[in-house]
Design a protein that fits this description.
With about 325 residues, this protein is mainly α. The protein contains 13 helices and five strands. The structure holds adenosine-5'-tetraphosphate. Adenosine-5'-tetraphosphate binds next to helix 1.
Length: about 325
Amino acid sequence: MSYRVFSGIQPTGQITLGNYLGALRQFVALQQDADAFYCVVDLHAITVAQDPSLLRERIVDLATLYLAVGLNPQKSTLFVQSDVSAHSELGWILQCMVHMGELSRMTQFKEKAEGKDTVTAGLFTYPALMAADILLYQTSRVPVGDDQKQHLELTRDIALRFNSRFGETFAVPEVMMLKEGARIMSLDDPAKKMSKSNPNPQSRIEILDSPDDIRKKISRAVTDSDREIRFAPQTKPAVSNLLVIYSLTADVTIDSLVAQYEGKGYGAFKKDLADVIVAHLTPIQEKHREIRGSGLTEDVLRQGAATAAQEAEETMALVRERVGLGGFRRR
Ligand code: AQP
């Protein structure tokens, strides 16, 4: 039987190999069996300042990338979060269900707030909006990278709390995470996760990077002190991260890579890794170029918003009734 999947990505920058390997690639695999809803979460993006015209461009770029990596709009619903106002409405209701203490414990908030003079209230309540995104669609599974695990756990707690207070309303979702690749690390610092909004572009491979840029970034990626290619995340985090990227991109095991590069040093390994990434990303980039500007993305998003709004409204009608809210316009 088909099951409901929901996930989203923020249009906060160019999508990285981390976003792709940890999340986006799973979206494509899941659409075979799942009834999937995939979202460009633009309301989440504005929890930090965004340039309006750049934001709009990135929304279309990201949705185009969804299509370019193989999401099929006949099988999955693709839409933009702000096109379905139920996200904001349920987000507010769930803000009234989540506790300040719970939000204060979120490591992503702490990381993003660190060193800033001011942070928005939206950044703090971000997990309530994320819970709304997921719960609106009666989602049973959420494919995400490791950094979203804590938010998912909070989503489950909020769903259980709501259900126990108001009666069964939401499906309680399960997190789906890869064993390897759920946390791809930065190329310049293996202690930090690869991130699309990291100010240093050398820290990440972007899916739309040119072959030249990919080769340069991989050749400059930090390595560990000895010259051995071994998988040891604790003692050799940089090379282990490159091995994970290689293994997932080329679809070969880490053990076979370690055997292949025994005694060969970092130069040959990095050159082959860059070739593998370029070969993997070239068809995606070609497809992206073909779709961008054709009008397909906009059509898909228009249709997706209508489908998602209808689905979300079913949940919202129940939520409003359970909570005891308004309802006069609709009666
Ligand atoms: N480094 C990563 N490795 C594996 N998965 C990752 N994800 C993010 N970084 C990695 C997963 O990508 C999905 C989309 O992420 P997001 O756009 O919702 O925001 P994020 O998790 O905060 O990702 P970024 O790239 O670091 O964005 P910014 O810089 O805007 O904060 C999620 O499933 C995430 O787990």
